Amino acid sequence: MEKVILYSIMFLILFTPITIAQDVITIKRAPEYAKASPGQAVDITLNYSLKGTQIGVIITEKLPLGWNIQNAFPAYSTYESETNSFKWLFLNKTGVVNGSIVYTIRVPEDAVTQNYYINGSWMSTNTEGSQHQGISPITTIEVLGVPSLFINVTTDKFTYYQGENVSISGWFGYENGTGVSKRVSLEIFDPNGFLVYETNLTSSYGFYAYNFTLPNDAALGYWTVNATGYGSIVKSSARFEVKAKAPYCGDGACAGYENCENCPSDCGCPSGYVCRNGVCIKPETGGTPSGPSGPSFPPTSVPGCKVAGENCSLYPCCSGLVCYKQICEYPVRRLEIIQYPEVLEILRNSEEKFVVKVKNTGNLEINVSLAILNFSECGNYSIFHPILNIMPDAEASFLLTFSSLNVTKQTECGALIKAEAENTSISTNFLIRIITVKPSYVLSKIQATKSKAERISKELEEVRLSGFSVEKQMSLLDQALIKISLAESEFQASRYDSSLSLVEEANLILDQILIPKAKFDMLLILFSVIVLTFIVILILLLRIRKKKCEVCGSKLQLLYDGERCKEYQCVKCGHRVVEVKKL
Q: pLDDT tens across 134-188, in order?
């Protein structure tokens, strides 16, 4: 029985198949790079394809600590809290088929501004029982700082008449261009400051609109519409002017430029008067005009008006002055661009939203238009509400969308942001950089390649200490390290295309180092098997060695093998030996 067991062990050691890592599963991940703010959701898609017949597959996704999957299709099979890993298990006796996994994560509200990485791996078993394993690409998520909410509001024009429709619209969202679908409160005030109308509506991905009809007897002057974003203190205001309904002949009122000649139905002369050149006179005397004779105009100044530097809280300023912070001043129109991207990096053939903030630093209410100049080589742009009304000391946020060209290499354009109002304008320069790859993605590739080089360096040092020559491998490693160093320099210079190319070259060199390393491992395994086999054979020989006679040294022959003892007899001299078995 002992012989059978020992021979079985030898057979298993010599003929057990050794599983070598193979890429029997290919996983493509989308996206490999994404930008998100705290609280924002990101969808991840894994498309996997298999080679050969795999009856069992495990796909693992390791998320940053504190991150969770909100929903997944198909649902994940197990969760490991220690490593924050989610596993999908697929079993099929006839072979697992190609498929995909889609899941949604939400960036934690307390996530800091940095890059986070989602690592993936896989393991499979084929019909022969051999196991294979590997890793899948990395997803880099760049967490942005918590963006500020902002809201703007405007009207379709600036002057309306009584009874006319006022079209109000605006945008509510984050400064990174992400619109929100939340409640917006609108309040409309007349020139006397009385609240005329209020309503609540819900923005749709940032956009909202409302139509308001002015009463036929609406107060004349400047009206104000206020918009407030739900759940925030952000507000925005716009003003519009309401004038008397445009007069027309036959409306029963003699107004505007109507007179007895061009509109006798509304401006007929009194009894005893006749119309001469639009004026009612007495025919017998050619007397003085009577009745309406055309429009009248207010005086340029009123009695008691205040001059420059005087307080205007009780009395108005004299003609040509404006009341600003209760002091009469000469009119000043002045603008300042207080927020804009100094460098706008945008992926080729894509869109990027950004915000430009303009402040009215003058003392007059002005309508400001925004434009971008000198950019045609990089793409085109659009502005949601390119003209906004800005009160003195107030700010307005312009939401811009820039669409890049599908360039084949990194391109830069110097551009100009120009804000303009009546008799004043201001401009500032900024840079538009069209890139073919995101810098965060390149940085993650550099970091991953450096980690790979460090791991290989340690393994080569262990092999060298074991007495093996690794000069060729060390030479390749030095070449890879030089490529990585150059890639870092190119990245610092914002030449991302060149940096990524150097990183890929370094990876190819490192992959060449893994080939002799794998051969060494195989030789080491075979050497270990041979040594173990020799030991087992030696043990077997010692256990089954032949017994010899104590008298003449000849061989002993087994005569009896009982439960308690064995009896032997010498084949030459006939000497017998009894061996008692241990109980």
A: 888 888 898 887 677 888 888 888 888 888 999 999 888 877 677 888 899 999 9
- Which phi-psi region, left, alpha or beta, contains residue 320 (left: φ > 0; alpha: ψ -120 to 50)? left
Structure token digits, residue 62: 């390791």
**Residue 577 phi, psi dihedral angles, 5° rounding:** -135, 130
Which letter, b or e, does each residue of 451-490 get, where b requires 16 or more Cβ atoms within 10 Å of its Cβ?
A: ebbeebbebbeebeeeeeebeebbebbebbbebbebbbeb
What secondary structure letter does DSSP report for 375?
Answer: -
Please, where are the H alpha helices in 272-367?
none
Residue-wise pLDDT for 92-148, tens only, equals: 888 999 999 999 998 887 888 888 999 999 999 888 888 888 888 888 898 887 677
What interhelical angle do 471-492 and 439-465 show, nearest 10?
160
Biggest CA-to-CA distance, the chain:
183
Element holding 501 (H helix, E strand): helix 496-543
Q: What sign does the CA torsion over 379, 384, 389, 393 have?
A: negative
- Residue 505 CB partners (closer than 8 Å, separation 6+): 483
Please provide residue 572's backbone torsions phi and psi, each rounded to the nearest 5 degrees. -105, -55
Closest CA to 439 of 447, 430, 428: 447
Band (pLDDT 50/70/90 cuts) for residue 57 is very high
Q: Which helix (H) or strand (E) segment is 271 a member of? A: none
**Cα distance from N-terminal residue to C-terminal residue, the chain:** 17
C-alpha 103 chain-centroid distance? 16
Q: Parallel, antiparallel, or unpaired for β 85-91 and 78-80? A: antiparallel
Euclidean distance between CA atoms 55 and 74, whole angstroms:
18
Total residues belonging to the chain? 583
Cβ partners under 8 Å of residue 472, min gap 6: 516
H or E element that contains 17: none
- Phi, psi (rounded to 5 degrees) for 44: -115, 135
Compute the distance between CA of residue 480 and CA of residue 459 in angstroms, rounded to an integer: 16
CA dihedral sign of residues 442, 48, 102, 87: negative
What's the average model confidence in pLDDT over 314-340?
86
Q: Mind spelling out the 3-state secondary structure of 429-487?
A: EEEEEEECCCHHHHHHHHHHHHHHHHHHHHHHHHHHHCCCCCHHHHHHHHHHHHHHHHH
Instruction: Check: CB of residue 336 under 8 Å from CB of residue 358.
Output: yes
* Mean of pLDDT values over 368-394: 86
pLDDT score of 231: 66
